[in-house]
């Protein structure tokens, strides 16, 4: 082979290698961006969980300290929460006066369900007492 026919082969080879490296870099960055978003969602999930816990605590306080009947603790819904907290999270309560299919507890107990929300993330807690 003569040197005249080999001109430009290294240019094509470098172009091919650069294309492969660019593809690997873009693929890796797409995965990293997805993981970063998921990690951020985990933090929001924890805040929503603790908002739901605040709802449970408020319901238990209302039952035992104030004496509110269990049927009266239900408040709010997903569109208008029961209470908004100082960190931007909120919760709403769903009370059960007796065990149902949604709350399998012994007959002498009752269930309280609280749903916490924060930045579009919802987490629920249900307790039997």
Describe the structure using short key phrases.
single chain; 129 residues; alpha+beta; four-stranded antiparallel beta sheet; 1 helix; 19% strand
Structure notes:
- The chain contains 1 helix and 4 strands.
- Strands 1-2-3-4 form a 4-stranded antiparallel β-sheet.
- A hairpin with a 2-residue loop joins strand 3 (111-118) and strand 4 (121-128).
- The protein has one helix at residues 9-66; strands at 83-84, 90-96, 111-118, 121-128.
- The chain has 129 residues and is an alpha+beta fold.
- The chain has a domain at 41-128.
- The chain is 45% helix and 19% strand.
- The longest helix has 58 residues, at 9-66.
- It is rod-shaped, with a radius of gyration of 28 Å.
- The mean pLDDT is 81.
Q: How is the secondary structure organized here?
A:
Blueprint: H1 9-66, E1 83-84, E2 90-96, E3 111-118, E4 121-128
Antiparallel strand pairs: 1-2, 2-3, 3-4
How would a textbook summarize the main sheet?
4 strands, antiparallel
Number of beta-strand segments: 4
How would you write the strand order of the largest sheet? 1-2-3-4
Whole-angstrom Rg:
28 Å
Mean pLDDT, to the nearest integer, reads 81
The end-to-end distance, rounded to whole angstroms, is: 88 Å
What portion of the residues fall into strands of 2 or more residues?
15-25%
Shape: rod-shaped
Number of helices: 1
Instruction: Provide the structure class.
Output: alpha+beta
**Helix fraction bin:** 40-55%
Order of secondary-structure elements = HEEEE
Regions with pLDDT < 50 over 5+ consecutive residues? none
């Amino acid at each position: 082979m003569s040197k005249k026919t080999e001109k430009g082969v290294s240019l094509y080879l470098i172009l091919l290698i650069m294309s492969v490296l660019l593809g690997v870099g873009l693929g890796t960055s797409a995965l990293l961006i997805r993981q970063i978003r998921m990690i951020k969602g985990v933090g929001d999930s924890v805040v929503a969980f603790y908002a739901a816990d605040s709802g449970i605590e408020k319901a238990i306080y209302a039952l035992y300290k104030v004496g509110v009947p269990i049927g009266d603790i239900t408040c709010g819904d997903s569109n208008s929460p029961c209470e908004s907290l100082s960190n931007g999270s909120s919760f709403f309560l769903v009370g059960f006066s007796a065990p149902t299919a949604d709350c399998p507890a012994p007959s002498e107990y009752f269930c309280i369900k609280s749903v916490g929300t924060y930045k579009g993330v919802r987490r629920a807690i249900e307790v039997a007492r």
